[in-house]
UniProtKB/TrEMBL annotation:
It holds the Pfam family AAA_25. One of its GO terms (molecular function) is damaged DNA binding. Belongs to the RecA family. RadA subfamily. The gene is radA. Gene3D superfamilies: 3.30.230.10, P-loop containing nucleotide triphosphate hydrolases. This is DNA repair protein RadA. The keyword tRNA processing does not apply.
Length: 457
């Protein structure tokens, strides 16, 4: 066994040091090291007494029937079930991260109530609020009558003992993992060691009992699930709940999922009575579009399996600074820099003396390169003052050579645009044949020079 002595653990990433230092070499965070007792042996672990041949092995094929025994636990909230991949898997552990006040507790209380009302035993453990506060929230959402078991407790041994009494719960929510502590771990609550130890104990409970466990995790200012990056590796799925303070809608996004796709999003709107599902996000993101103005282009995007239309806004203005500003909300900085460089080199635009601002309307975060030509169109439109046709959508990837490349699921993008009343689409000239494009007027482009010429004309 390693020599015992003071250990310093980075509270951001869990890296262990034997000497204090100002910056964590592993993740680059400053002042994140704190002294903790040497990580205790795993609670309930067998130490180094030498392994006994206790683990049983199974032939893969003989397990065929077993996986069908446990059907998924469907929450009945369509947008949530979509992100989990069709419901919670019994015995699995899910981590939900998000900023404080974004609505994690609200969402989970709604899921608990929906399951409890269908006769499942559901336990909601709050380490942050009293049972009275949790009940008040449920009342506000009109769910106070749902037979959810509530507990305000922070000690994991007590929680696990309580859960062992009575009928086995189908779902257990722990709100939040940072408030939990285990008596078998020496560090203070909230430290990496404590969070990891508590998570381990709870995960072991889920795996042995077959209950689905949801852990709520807080997020640091740079968007990572605070403290326990380590916990992310221990769980089966990591979901993040996002939203812009100024907007009422929220997006649940899969970051890791052993039982489903990770690129699905669920869209909700925060109302006075909890979260309501948004089954047609495009209509929401395009709502309140202003009169046609330069610098606005509608991008036909895809999130997971679902097409989502969203407006991309650009403002290109002469700069008064030595180094012009580039500011982006909802898209990648480096991707904008690339599109700007391509427009300068191949499109003949002069942007060196201009500030550039780019915004994805409504607070959605776009990750697809397919947004390139929507961004390019918005930039050219703002620079030249030419208004883009109001009833058009844009999608296509821009290569460094200036070529416009085809993107996937074009047919679904066009169908969504047609459904929302758009009449034309600007898209790459190559790519698979997808019929007539739902009756849209298709404008195909092979190179950014053609696009620039078309907009400026
Ligand atoms: P909460 O679920 O407590 O957030 P988290 O657990 O992620 O910290 O949500 C808190 C916010 O949601 C709070 O600012 C009030 C708002 N809210 C509503 O607008 N309507 C509602 O019905 C509820 C329950 C909360
Ligand atoms: Mg909360």
């Amino acid at each position: 066994m390693a020599k015992r002595g003071p250990t310093y653990i980075c509270q951001a990433c869990g890296a262990v040091y034997h000497r204090w230092q100002g910056k964590c070499d592993a993740c680059g965070t400053w002042s994140s090291l704190s002294e903790e007792a040497q990580a205790a042996p795993v609670p309930g672990g067998r130490g180094s007494s030498g392994g006994k041949a206790r683990g049983r092995v199974f032939a893969l094929e003989t397990l065929k029937g077993e996986t069908q025994d446990a059907p998924r636990i469907v929450a009945g909230i369509g947008e949530l079930d979509r992100v989990t991949g069709g419901g919670f898997v019994p015995g699995s552990v899910l981590l939900i991260g998000g900023d404080p006040g974004i609505g994690k507790s609200t969402l989970l209380m709604q899921a608990c109530a929906a399951l409890a009302l269908r006769g499942q035993r559901v336990v909601y453990v709050s380490g942050e609020e009293s049972t009275g506060q949790v009940r008040l929230r449920a009342e506000r959402m009109g769910l106070a009558e749902a037979p959810v078991d509530l507990a305000a407790e922070t000690n994991v041994e007590d929680i696990i003992a309580t859960l062992g009494q009575g009928q086995r719960p189908a779902l257990v929510v722990i709100d939040s993992i940072q408030t939990m502590w285990s008596g078998e771990v020496e560090s203070a609550p909230g430290t990496v060691t404590q969070v990891r130890g508590s998570a381990q104990a709870l995960i072991r409970y889920a795996k042995t009992s077959g209950a689905c466990l949801i852990l709520v995790g807080h997020v640091t200012k740079d968007g990572q699930i605070a403290g326990p990056r380590v916990v992310e590796h221990m769980v089966d799925a990591v979901l993040s709940f996002e939203g812009e303070g100024a907007h009422s809608f929220r997006i649940l996004r899969g970051q890791k999922n052993r039982f489903g796709a990770t690129d699905e999003i669920g869209v909700f709107e925060m109302t006075g009575k909890g979260l309501s599902e948004v089954s047609n996000p495009s209509a929401l993101f395009l709502a309140g579009r202003d009169q046609p103005a330069p610098g606005a282009a509608v991008f036909a995007g895809v999130e997971g399996t679902r097409p989502v239309l969203v407006e991309i806004q650009a403002l290109v203005a002469p700069t008064s600074l030595g180094t012009p500003r580039r500011a982006v909300v909802g898209w990648e900085n480096s991707r904008l820099a690339m599109v700007l460089a391509v427009l300068e080199t191949h499109g003949g635009l002069r942007l060196g003396q201009h500030d550039v601002y780019l915004n994805v309307a409504g607070g959605l975060r776009v990750n697809e390169p397919a947004a390139d030509i929507a961004v390019a169109a918005a930039l050219v439109s703002s620079l030249t003052g030419a208004i883009l046709p109001n009833e058009s959508v844009y999608f296509g990837e821009v290569a460094l050579s200036g070529a416009i490349r085809p993107v996937s699921v074009a047919a679904a993008r066009l169908r969504e645009a047609a459904k929302l009343g758009f009449g034309a689409a600007f898209l790459p000239s190559g790519g698979a044949d997808f019929g007539d494009g739902s009756g849209l007027n298709l404008r195909r482009f092979g190179h950014v020079t053609e696009l620039v010429a078309d907009i400026a004309a």
